[in-house]
Design brief:
Length: 382
């Protein structure tokens, strides 16, 4: 065995020697360690690149699959509605002043929107309670503020002192205008030092009426000049004017007037009867001292001393209870009884008596009126 191995090694050595004579020198033995390090670096770079590319692909795919969460953008908040508060011309005061001067409306006459005849007279009344801490003296006034005055005076003094907790009735005589339409007037309280005030919610009080639009009849018949007129007192003394009331001697007077209806068509149907006052003269305070003035159907013929009426009056066709109700331009529609009386007097003469409820107040002071009435008759014919 050893002999064979020796021969083999000898043969190999001869072979290598012979090859060295014919072959160019061999290249240097490569640096295996350096090559391995380089190869490792290359592999690491390639793996890192692959990992990066893989992560990039995954990120792109994930981004394509995820639905983006929308960004919330708050919508514009709508503006709150604007509330318009109408200003009160003279708003109620505040603090001590408000507690001092303040009224409460207890009641009133003539509701808003009351329909009236052209020229109709009326009294608008407010019942006011003093709910403040300060008394209202006679120096306080109820005054017109703005709007439609309706024939009234512009200011009225309180009838007396009104202590806190007490109430007062303020009455304002007014006249409905002759022109149809809606009318509105405002009033307020006024203290002596010029402070305007009212209730806790408004310093204004008002009156609102509607004057009706009267459809014209076929004919309007105005009797401007009575057939006769005059005054008569309890002593039988006569006056050429239509006079009613009492005199300085406390003698009561009654007025008388007659109208001729012969010019009315015999087939006329009376639709309205109105007393319109062309004018009047007032002496003293007859409506305060003697009460209301009534107009009565009264056949007196030719006026003489025997026509003075001594019984208690009743059945008035018209009634007037304030001086402004008989001023120039004032008008009052007659009752159904007045229509009946005129209808049944067509072709003849109709006569009336003017008389206060009370004959005299015995104050030795004249309280009387002198009137100039016009009888207006409206009628239709077939």
């Amino acid at each position: 065995m050893k002999k064979k191995l020796s021969l083999y090694l000898l043969f190999l050595a001869l072979l290598l020697w012979g090859s060295g004579c014919a072959i160019e020198p061999a290249e240097p033995t490569p640096n295996i360690a350096g090559t391995a390090a380089a190869m490792a670096e290359t592999i690491v770079v390639e793996q890192l690149t692959q990992v990066a590319e893989t992560n990039l692909t995954l990120t792109a795919d994930a981004a394509a699959q995820i639905t983006p969460t929308p960004t919330y953008t708050p919508s514009a908040t709508p503006a709150p509605p604007v509330t318009v508060n109408l200003p009160t011309p003279f708003p109620a005061g505040s603090g001590d002043e408000s507690a001092c001067l303040q009224a409460h409306l207890v009641s009133e006459t003539i509701p808003d929107g009351t329909v009236m005849e052209p020229g109709e007279t009326f009294n608008k009344e407010w019942v006011l309670k003093n709910v403040g801490s300060c008394p209202w003296t006679s120096g306080f006034q109820f005054i017109f503020n703005h709007g439609d005055l309706l024939g009234a005076d512009s200011q009225y003094a309180l009838p007396g002192s009104v202590q806190p907790g007490e109430a007062v009735t303020i009455s304002v005589p007014m006249i409905a205008p002759a022109v149809p339409g809606d009318y509105l007037g405002f009033w307020t309280m006024l203290s002596p030092d010029g402070q305007r005030f009212g209730t806790s919610t408004s310093s204004l009080f008002w009156v609102q009426i509607t004057v009706k639009d009267i459809l014209p009849p076929d004919t309007t018949f105005d009797l401007w000049y009575p057939t006769s007129e005059g005054g008569l007192n309890a002593l039988g003394q006569m006056d050429s004017n239509l006079v009613a009331g009492d005199g300085n001697d406390n003698q009561p007077w009654q007025g008388f007037v007659a109208y001729n209806l012969v010019d009315l068509p015999s087939n006329a149907t009376i639709t309205k009867v109105v007393l319109v006052f062309e004018g009047s003269n007032v002496t003293g305070t007859p409506f305060t001292d003697l009460g209301c003035l009534g107009v009565y159907r009264y056949n007196f013929g030719a006026l003489d001393a025997s026509d003075y009426y001594t019984d208690t009056p009743g059945g008035a066709l018209w009634s007037f209870c304030a001086a402004n109700e008989i001023t120039a331009g004032a008008a009052r529609v007659g009752s159904d009884a007045a229509l009946y009386e005129i209808q049944n007097s067509i072709g003849g003469v109709i006569q009336f008596r003017f008389q206060f409820n009370n004959t005299t107040d015995n104050d030795n002071s004249a309280d009387s009126i002198s009137l100039f009435p016009v009888l207006r008759i409206e009628y239709t014919t077939p």
